[in-house]
C-alpha cells in the first residue's frame, strides 16, 4: 500500500474546521439529550395507554445516560479520525481505515448537511427547554402550568421534531458502516451493508430508525395531550384548537 499523501496547509485547515464543526454538533446533541430538569419518579396515572417499553415515551435515568454517552463516545472517535484524515494508517484507533468513506471525514455535501441540520434545529429544542422551564421533563409528568407563550404560542410540541432531526443526523453519520463502525467491522460486512453507491441495506435501516422515532413521538404526544386535557380542560382545548402540533400553520 502506498504511503498516504502529505498534509497541505489547506487540507489541514479544512480538517480543523470540520472537526470544530463536529465538536459543536456533538455538544448540541449532548445538550439536547440531557434532561433540563430532574427525571420524575414514575406515576401510574401518567402511564401510556398502550404497552410500550418505558423509554419509548419517557426514558428513565439509565436510558438517558446511555443515550447521551454512547453518541458522545462515537463523536469523539469520529472527530479524532477527521483530524487524522487523510493520513490514516492502521492503528488501535482504527484498525481498518480502508473501510472508511472519506466523504464522512472531509467537507462534503453529506457532512455539510449533517452539521447544518444539527446546528440549525438543536437550538430550537434547547429554547423549548428554557421556555417550558421546570415543566420540561423527559418522562411524562404533570406540569405546574400550561405554557402558551414563546414557541408554545405557535406549536404545542416544538422540541420533538428537532429532537428527531438531531437523532437522524447522528444516526446518519455515526452509525454508517463506512464511518466509525467501519474501523472495527470486516470489510465484507461494510461492503455488503453499504452496497454499490450506498444502495445496500443501510438506507433501509436509516428509514426504519426514522419511522420508529416518529412512531415513538406520536405515542408520547398522544399520552401527553390526554394528560394535559385532564389537567387543564377547556384552557388546553382552546390552545390546542388555535395552534398546530409541530409546524406552525401546517401540522
How would you characterize the overall build of this protein?
- This protein has 251 residues and is mostly helical.
- The protein has one domain (11-35, 56-241): Four Helix Bundle (Hemerythrin (Met), subunit A).
- It is built from eight helices and no strands.
- The protein has helices at residues 9-32, 54-57, 61-84, 109-132, 160-174, 187-194, 202-232, 234-242.
- Helix 7 crosses helix 8.
- The longest helix is centred in the C-terminal third of the chain and has 31 residues, at 202-232.
- It is elongated.
- One of its GO terms (cellular component) is endoplasmic reticulum membrane.
- It holds the Pfam family ICMT.
- It is found in: Endoplasmic reticulum membrane; Membrane.
- Belongs to the class VI-like SAM-binding methyltransferase superfamily. Isoprenylcysteine carboxyl methyltransferase family.
- Its main location: endoplasmic reticulum.
SSE blueprint:
Elements: H1 9-32, H2 54-57, H3 61-84, H4 109-132, H5 160-174, H6 187-194, H7 202-232, H8 234-242
Helix pairs in contact: 1-3, 1-4, 4-5, 5-7, 7-8
Radius of gyration: 21 Å
Q: Could you name the CATH topology?
A: Four Helix Bundle (Hemerythrin (Met), subunit A)
CATH top level assignment: Mainly Alpha
The CATH level-2 architecture is identified as Up-down Bundle
N→C terminal distance: 55 Å
How much strand content do the residues show? Answer: under 5%
> Which H/E pattern describes the elements?
HHHHHHHH
Count of individual helical segments: 8
Structural class by secondary-structure content: mainly alpha
Annotation keywords:
251 residues; mainly alpha; Four Helix Bundle (Hemerythrin (Met), subunit A); 55% helix; transmembrane; transmembrane helix
